[in-house]
Every structure is written in C-alpha cells, then in structure tokens.
Write a structure and sequence with these properties.
Layout lengths: L25 H6 L1 H5 L5 H12 L2 H21 L5 H19 L1
Helix pairs in contact: 4-5
The protein binds zinc ion.
Length: 102
C-alpha cells in the first residue's frame, strides 16, 4: 500500500491583518517627510518613520541633507522651504532608491 507523503501542510497559512505594524518603505518615508519636518505628524507615525531612518542609510543621509537645506532656507527666508525644493529632493532620493532596488 502507498504511503501518502505529507508535504505542503502549511501552504495555505493565512497572512492577514499584519499590514498595520509594518515599517515604512523608503518611498512612503519620503512622502511623509515634509510633514515630519514640519512637526505635523502624530507621535506614532513619527516613531515609525524614525525607526525606518535609523535602519536605512540612504534615507538617513537624505534626511541630514534635507535638514541642512531646510535650515538654510528658513534662516534666509524666515519661512517654509519652497515646495519646489522639496520636490527636487524627493525625486533625487526616489531616483537613488529605484536604482538600488530596481
Ligand atoms: Zn529608506
């Protein structure tokens, strides 16, 4: 008599409801960066974002560069950084990331 091989017992393990606690992706981090720097972010999201930055070198470097730029702009203009500057920085990072991750 044939013995049935026991394989694939857990092929259909459910994987639902886990999306809330996942980390930000780089793109998401950049998308909310302006809110983060403007202090318009909830503590919860802020912690989540900082957790990403602390483990992601490209984002960390970008953040340092971004902060320096924003600081200079604020000093000079005494107001918010122009949106065009933020957009340029964002596209800069997105280009870097997409080149790395495909
Ligand atoms: Zn990142």
């Amino acid at each position: 008599m044939l013995e049935t091989a026991r394989r694939g017992a857990h092929l259909f393990s459910t994987n639902t409801g886990g999306s809330k606690s996942r980390m930000y992706t780089c793109k998401e981090a950049v998308d909310v960066l302006l809110e983060y720097l403007d202090g318009e972010m909830t503590p919860e999201l802020k912690a989540k974002l900082e957790a990403h930055f602390s483990g992601c070198q490209p984002c960390e470097e970008f953040l340092a560069q971004y902060r320096a730029t924003v600081g200079l702009c604020r000093k000079a203009l005494e107001k918010r950084m122009p949106e065009s500057v933020g957009e340029r920085l964002k596209s800069f990072l997105k280009t870097n990331i997409s080149a790395k991750t495909g």
